[in-house]
Design goal:
- 2 copies of one chain form a homodimer.
- With 716 residues, chain A is of the alpha+beta class.
- The first copy, chain A, folds into 5 domains: 153 residues, Galactose-binding domain-like (Jelly Rolls), CATH 2.60.120; 115 residues, Galactose-binding domain-like (Jelly Rolls); 120 residues, no CATH class; 183 residues, Glycosyltransferase; 90 residues, Maltose phosphorylase, domain 3.
- Chain A has 14 helices and 41 strands.
- In chain A, the strands form 10 sheets. In chain A, strands 16, 17, 18, 19, 20, 21, 22, 23, 24, 25 and 26 form an 11-stranded antiparallel β-sheet that branches.
- In chain A, a hairpin with a 6-residue loop joins β33 and β34.
- In chain A, α5 runs antiparallel to α6.
- The longest helix of chain A has 22 residues.
- At the A-B interface, β3, β6 and β12 of A face β3, β6 and β12 of B.
Chain lengths: 716, 716
Amino acid sequence: MEMTNKATWIWYPGDYEIWLGNQMNNRRTERGAFFPPFWKMDSHYVTVEFSKKLDLAEPEEIFIAAEGKYNVKLDGKLQFGMPERFQLPAGKHSLNIKIWNQATPPCLYIKGKTVNTDDSWKVTYEDKEWIDESGKASDTSATVYMDAACWNFNDPSQRPSLFRLNRVAQQSVGKKEEKDGMLYDFGKETFGYVVLENLSGCGRVNIYYGESPEEATDMEYCETLDHLQVEGSRVTDLSVNETSQITGNYTLGNSKAFRYVFVTKDAGVQLGDVSMQYEFLPVDYRGSFRCNDEELNRIWNIGAYTMHLTTREFFIDGIKRDRWVWSGDAIQSYLMNYYLFFNSECVKRTIWLLRGKDPVTSHSNTIMDYTFFWFMSIYDYYMYTGDKHFVSQVYPRMQTMMDYVLGRTNANGMVEGLTGDWVFVDWADGYLDKHGELSFEQVLFCKSLETMALCAGLAGNADDVKKYETLASNLRARLMPAFWNAAKKALVHNRFDGKQSENVTRYANMFAVFFGYLSDEQKEEIKHSVLLNDEVLKITTPYMRFYELEALCVMGEQTEVLKEMKAYWGGMLREGATSFWEKYNPEEKGTQHLTMYGRPYGKSLCHAWGASPIYLLGKYYLGVRPVKEGYQEFAVSPVLGGLEWMEGSVPTPNGDIHVYMDGSQIKIKATEGKGYLYIASQQLPQASAGNVEELGAGKYRLWIDTKDEVVVKYNV
Amino acid sequence: MEMTNKATWIWYPGDYEIWLGNQMNNRRTERGAFFPPFWKMDSHYVTVEFSKKLDLAEPEEIFIAAEGKYNVKLDGKLQFGMPERFQLPAGKHSLNIKIWNQATPPCLYIKGKTVNTDDSWKVTYEDKEWIDESGKASDTSATVYMDAACWNFNDPSQRPSLFRLNRVAQQSVGKKEEKDGMLYDFGKETFGYVVLENLSGCGRVNIYYGESPEEATDMEYCETLDHLQVEGSRVTDLSVNETSQITGNYTLGNSKAFRYVFVTKDAGVQLGDVSMQYEFLPVDYRGSFRCNDEELNRIWNIGAYTMHLTTREFFIDGIKRDRWVWSGDAIQSYLMNYYLFFNSECVKRTIWLLRGKDPVTSHSNTIMDYTFFWFMSIYDYYMYTGDKHFVSQVYPRMQTMMDYVLGRTNANGMVEGLTGDWVFVDWADGYLDKHGELSFEQVLFCKSLETMALCAGLAGNADDVKKYETLASNLRARLMPAFWNAAKKALVHNRFDGKQSENVTRYANMFAVFFGYLSDEQKEEIKHSVLLNDEVLKITTPYMRFYELEALCVMGEQTEVLKEMKAYWGGMLREGATSFWEKYNPEEKGTQHLTMYGRPYGKSLCHAWGASPIYLLGKYYLGVRPVKEGYQEFAVSPVLGGLEWMEGSVPTPNGDIHVYMDGSQIKIKATEGKGYLYIASQQLPQASAGNVEELGAGKYRLWIDTKDEVVVKYNV
């Protein structure tokens, strides 16, 4: 929520986000072909009305800028034309401005002495203002108003439709001749627009991109490429049939992901150096982590870079191939983001885009599990940011999304894959049965119903709280009878025709752990029968390793998880990774690591879900998490997990929490909120100061004063 | 349905129509202010996929043009770039083309030897094509395909987004100096772009439009105007802040309705003549009517011109003020159109636009009755054209519209005005109670449910046939108990808290007549207690006079109706009308006729619903109507109604039916279909030829051979 009172561009909530998302999602290409998403792409309301009730002490002139054709109504009276300056009289007045724009979202900017567009303005797509038989407008109460949305376009010239990410010129770090062309190395995974310097002559130029040198030099199979036709100063991009006039340097029109660029050209073409315009969203690196283990530090840094590359207009999956916004990927990006950039605007944009507009015609990205992650991400966002307003804005779309889900449940009130549903779960190196009732999907569904009840409460909808609490508790009561297998000491993978399968997978079990759906005894059983059991199908995506390692951390297995992180993410680093991958199987070798989807370079080597140590280290080692929304109250439970020392910062809405820990002391400094450190009795005598509260069973918590650093010394 | 096999531009059904409708509906201005509709304006699907299964005897090159960014997939394989020419191999293949376009609807044109875009192509907004764990696309069966839509854009350069109506230059018929300006008279109501000839100099030019000279010269209150700023060859339209460079003539950018144009200017401005570009949709005048009564001929001609002015991209209400597409107005335009232009494309466009997209958030144009007219118009269209394909295309949107209605019924299964509903009925010169259950709305609702059942059958949805038949018969059974008042011999106006009101109005009674909801006895009672009873609130809009006179015609009162037509429409002509009005109260005088909505020139003097004699004369005097869809079977029941002779043509989908009648004979010539003439026994001996069928009770029907003219002579 924009809290300033200066003027800013405003729009209908979600509309700019959906429009901008279409720009983003439609930039994917595959070997020179345009490759848009296959799910329904929504669009903005083409005509909306912004309004504000005024009470002015004195007359005031306002400046008006709009994206679209507009009119101005003062106290219901239409004014002539589309005035750029307009005189408001003193006193109480209604100001309404209606804008129509087919191509880009209708946006408004008004600047006056006291009257400025911001999120206190109202907006509607349907004013339900009509005329009764006596000729006067009546019953405008039927109009549904939303609070206008905004971001950071605070200048009239910063028209939202013109928004572009930042760019900066970068050079390659090396080049060498290969086959019939030149291979450029940009030193690490990167993203942007290739620049062909001093391009002239006549003939074809071909550009092949690679996250690996093998990919870049494989003209037949590299995933992305560009073909240009040069005729003097005229250069035609053959994939989009667009010709530009150049003087010297030619910059490609579409961005690409690469570390290597292989360029071939006809003899008649002259070409100087090949450089790039690196493209990025400006973000603050507010979270940090350092420790005595340099490999872990490197994992954190590469994770942060992976996150930065995939944190753009939206949180995208990976930069090379899809470049799309996927809900299951996004929820992990959000969680990492809370421990890194704390960029709430990007979270909100991504949530709006993923939901799109009514009617709901499919699951999020067509994937059943991704719908559930979408619900869950909203309450996560609320807990980290405290932004209740956003929850109430998006709540109506949560309702219609859940109506869609509830309309597809079976006689047991459970979800199973119907025609049109993609039951994803994970990319697994082994058979995953997708038939019948999957325990994984029911666990996510149950959590989603609980989320609906919580968000209904935040949106002030008491009826819905009751409705969703009932639905959630009914489903919750069915979970264990349906899926728990006492002999296997685990939730089985699925149930078909009312019969449990013999199959046990990790997915439902690990979610049940951190959703608190299991007894302590069951958790302990699962740890050994599933999570630490090599007989159970292994997870080879960082995507599900995220949850697997989180489950272990929740059960206090930080020492084990640290070893896993070093083995798995360290393994990628030893393979030369400069960003983390979509999938990593330590048993594979060499170019096997590049393949996926049956294509030799199908795998993305920069995938947001690869960066999960960012989240794990912040939440389960530094041990910082919000207990009440927006860190009004927070808990710190640092765990070294085998490290000698560690330190780092976790961002909060308006501050941060800095934690240092080694074998003899914990130091905490928080700049906002009210938090506590869980401590054990042996730490108690050394606690430097403050408010110690006994929790029983030898446990205490030490309340942290946000003014000063808290130091707790151990009895070593 | 486009039946040619030549190439034509195609799009997602309804999408181009909705987009074009936004252009149309957003052209309204009020005294120089942009005045868009207040209901939700929908938009096209921004990304759609067109597809076609091919089976080619030999390879074939196709030419591809698209509105938007596109890709080409052959047998699931993406092709490089956006090829303008593409080689298709022989044999069986799948061709898929996906297009993204935010600003205008994605449209496709393909021309080859045998492969051409037409309505045999499929299109979807959501291909539900995904990749299972083995990497192959699966379960595309979930995709909902529609048949692509088209119109008459048969050349690659005729991009649908560039469509414009035709224009032709016209001169004024007179001018005179008035006050400080010049008043131009264009001789009759017209529509188009004012042209300021040989404009130069410096200063302001003001243009005031009027359907009457009073309006044009009333600078304070005329409904539409334009202000220009001239600076040499630069002319700025001050209402839209748009500057153009001119050489000589300046043509206004927005069209206006007027007969009179009053122009004032600063002394520094030089201006030659003022002319116009008349703008129109090219239509065929396929229907005709002539008789011995010259006043009636004039009524028909002025009605036809009124219809032509309001038959544009869509059927609009009136040309001066709203210029919007309103459902209640449109259904009458459709019916008149079937007896005049038989322009089916304009009917289909208007039906798509009025419905818009899901979700349904209000009634059609926010008006409850207009929703019901929308349903009814679809079955009307089917009966006149036989176009079953259109019904099946639009049927899913009928379902969701009816779901909206059913979601707002009360415990009696009846509709009443809820918050957000505009219960319109009519503009009445007296109080119309809109509270509780209006008989008028229930009668329309019942007919709509019957329509749903019929259209469900046409769309092949047997479950829905049953569902809607049950709903319709349940409501039908409740109508008479709820509203018939035996003492008043009429349906009462409404019921509130289960209690009949004392009020009787014409609306429900006249609809119940031609919907066949009354016994013969009740009809006869209504005729005297309501329709011919001057005590009952009089109808003063041609809108409801349409149905009032239709009800009388259905009961054989053509002689009475002819008098009414001459009095009412003849009355407008005597007031100087050159097109028919939105409302006419014969008791008003002079400039009273110009006022409406509390504004001195608020009334539209060219309103489509003013043209109803076109329909009445074709259907109830020439007496031609389809009995089976698309005139496969038709009935002719000519009635002179006091005329000495009449003749005319009624268009059928691919031909026409010509009828001549005087006191001694009837002559009929039909060029398609199988029809019959109802004849009475006294005509029988003279019937010239053919197949006479006895119907009993002294009634016969004479089957008409479409090859020859049928002549039936009377015993005079």
